[in-house]
Design goal:
The complex is a heterodimer.
Chain A lengths: L25 E4 L1 H18 L6 E5 L3 H16 L8 E3 L31 E9 L3 H11 L6 E9 L11 E5 L7 E5 L1 H4 L3 E5 L3 H10 L1
Parallel strand pairs in A: 2-3, 2-4, 4-5, 5-6
Antiparallel strand pairs in A: 1-8, 7-8
Helix pairs in contact in A: 1-2
Chain B lengths: L14 H15 L16 E6 L5 H12 L3 E6 L11 H10 L4 E6 L4 H8 L3 E7 L5 H15 L6 E5 L6 H12 L3 E5 L15 E3 L2 H4 L5 E4 L15 H8 L3 H4 L7 E3 L12 H4 L6 H20 L4 H7 L1
Parallel strand pairs in B: 1-2, 1-3, 3-4, 5-6, 5-8, 6-7, 8-9
Helix pairs in contact in B: 1-5, 1-11, 2-11, 3-4, 5-6, 5-11
The chains are: A alpha/beta, B alpha/beta.
């Protein structure tokens, strides 16, 4: 019932596809590319935040959480510091603007690190940046937990087609897409391998999936 | 994964549905730790609490749950409404329908009233207790409490003790707990067991002492004097001696076992005060868990697309 990979918010209101078949998708990034992109993003975070002492990484479930953990591991190796960078997760489901456009969504875990986010530099981490609506929901959710000094956004893939004035601070790879294409992010922890695939839309499957939701 | 449109009976829930409610409640419970205990999810939706029978905890629990999800809440009780002027359930329902209620939480002294209501209105109906029939959200919060205290529901031995005849809590719990894989035994004097209890998915016993040593959960039911029009047992004292849970009986429970009570309690009748206030007792927790579980139910019923529009799109 759940898509094999969660490309960012499928948006049924415009009849656009939510999913495609990873089997017919073509690879755009392989495992080595994904690893290099994460390493570069980690360095950029440290550089931009002058060592990154106050940085808190918050992943947006599900794959954003995995990415945040991997970024956290890399940050620890770059700067020799007393304690590890706090890593958590932020579920945005209850703050989405498209809840009424499809069936009810199950909730994902939210885990704010013990130090909280007040006065910290929060880096939101997600797999794909698409319409920007997920990030808007994340900003709303974040404000309920405290007042960060700054909020930044890191994504593995920016596929364009923004519907809100939102941009990423750290981008693994810009992939120009058409609206009917689907982006699949596969990660070792959830899918057994690292890759980013670009596939044609499978409209029949997306429709049947909508009907069952 | 979607719940049925109405929550009328614990039997309406499949195992997957029930687990979805419990998992959702677990996430929502963490809201209580936040400085701002409010989510914007049901903004603009209207929840009507339609209570034809007295209730403190269930009504306030639903009210808090709906408000934490930002729904508008209208409390409608029979006292002080046109019901006391003789308005029928159907006319009341049509009035609420005209006011645009998205969900109606209904408690009624007549078994089956929420089922009738569900045929008359477009919104979702949640049964908050109908006569001696069912109280599904109580069963869900009881299952949630067992899971949070003991880590699981499947495989637990649950004893439900007391006035089973008049208890909607007992019926809903038996149905839900058996769906979730628990082994349930109801224990009561023969006069307080309903006709047909042998067809329920549970064991039946008349004797409390033999069941307690192998129970992980003991759920004590209130003796519902307001529904008793005959002599169901000789004296309260005798009932209490045979079916009440006191400290001596509690000592025969396994170490990890918990004691539950849906409330309100008759201290000294079905449960001794020292048991109700002991560390095994989950009675206060049950109330807090009730809010999380009812938030989960309201979210799962109202949080997504309207079912009519989803069907139209399909």
């Amino acid at each position: 019932m759940k898509p094999a990979s969660r490309s960012e918010s499928g948006r049924p209101e415009t009849g656009r596809p939510v999913t495609g078949d990873p089997a017919v998708a073509r690879p755009v990034l392989d495992a080595a590319d994904v690893g290099r992109a994460l390493t570069r993003i980690a360095h950029e975070i440290v550089e931009r935040n002058h060592g990154g002492a106050d940085v808190v990484l918050l992943g947006i479930p599900t794959r954003g959480v995995t990415l945040a953990q991997r970024l956290g591991d890399r940050l620890a190796t770059i700067e020799t510091r007393q304690q590890a960078v706090p890593v958590g997760s932020l579920d945005v489901t209850m703050y989405r603007d498209d809840l009424r456009l499809r069936g009810v969504r199950p909730l994902e875990p939210t885990d704010i690190p013990p130090g909280g986010i007040d006065g910290k530099i929060v880096v939101l981490v997600d797999d794909v940046l698409f319409s920007g609506r997920t990030v808007r929901a994340a900003l709303d959710a974040l404000s309920e937990y405290g007042r960060p000094r700054a909020v930044q956004l890191a994504v593995l893939v920016d596929r364009g087609h923004r519907e809100l004035p939102i941009r990423a601070d750290y981008v693994g790879k810009n992939i120009p897409t058409s609206l009917t294409e689907t982006v699949h992010v596969l990660l070792d922890a959830t899918d057994g391998r690292d890759a980013v695939l670009l596939g044609p839309a499978d409209l029949s499957r997306s429709q049947s999936e909508e009907a069952t939701r | 994964m979607t719940l049925p449109r109405h929550l009328l009976s614990a039997a309406d829930l499949s195992r997957a549905d029930a687990l979805l409610v419990l998992d959702t409640a677990e996430e929502l419970a963490r809201l209580a730790d936040r400085p701002i205990k409010k989510l914007p999810t049901l903004r603009g939706r209207t929840v009507v609490n339609l209570f034809f029978e007295d209730s403190t905890r269930t009504r306030t629990s639903f009210e808090v749950a709906a408000k934490r999800l930002s729904a508008d809440v209208i409390n409608f009780s029979a006292k002080g409404s046109s019901v006391s002027k003789g308005e029928s359930l159907k006319d009341t329902a049509l009035t609420l329908e005209a006011m645009g209620a998205d969900a109606v939480v209904c408690r009624h002294s007549a078994s089956g009233a929420p089922h009738r209501l569900a045929n008359w209105i477009r919104g979702s109906v949640v049964n908050a207790g109908d006569g001696t029939h069912e109280h599904p959200t109580q069963a869900l919060l009881d299952a949630y409490t067992m899971r949070s205290r003991l880590g699981r529901v499947e495989g637990l031995n649950v004893a439900i003790v007391g006035d089973v005849l008049h208890s909607r809590v007992a019926r809903s719990n038996v149905l839900l707990l058996s769906t979730l894989g628990a082994e349930v035994t109801v224990i009561a004097p023969p006069t307080l067991l309903p006709v047909g209890v042998e067809d329920w998915p549970c064991n039946v016993s008349y004797e409390l002492d033999s069941v307690l040593p192998k129970s992980d959960v003991v759920m004590m039911l209130r003796v519902q004097r307001e529904r008793m029009y005959g002599g169901f047992f000789p004296t309260t004292r005798e009932y209490s001696r045979r079916y009440g849970l006191d400290a001596r009986r509690m000592a025969t429970l396994p170490d990890q076992a918990i004691v539950m009570h849906p409330g309100p309690m008759n201290r000294g009748v079905e449960i001794a005060a020292e048991v109700a206030d002991s560390v095994r007792s989950t009675i206060v927790e049950q109330v807090a868990n009730g809010v999380s579980v009812r938030m989960a139910v309201l979210y799962l019923l109202l949080g997504g697309a309207l079912i009519e529009s989803a069907e139209a799109a399909a």
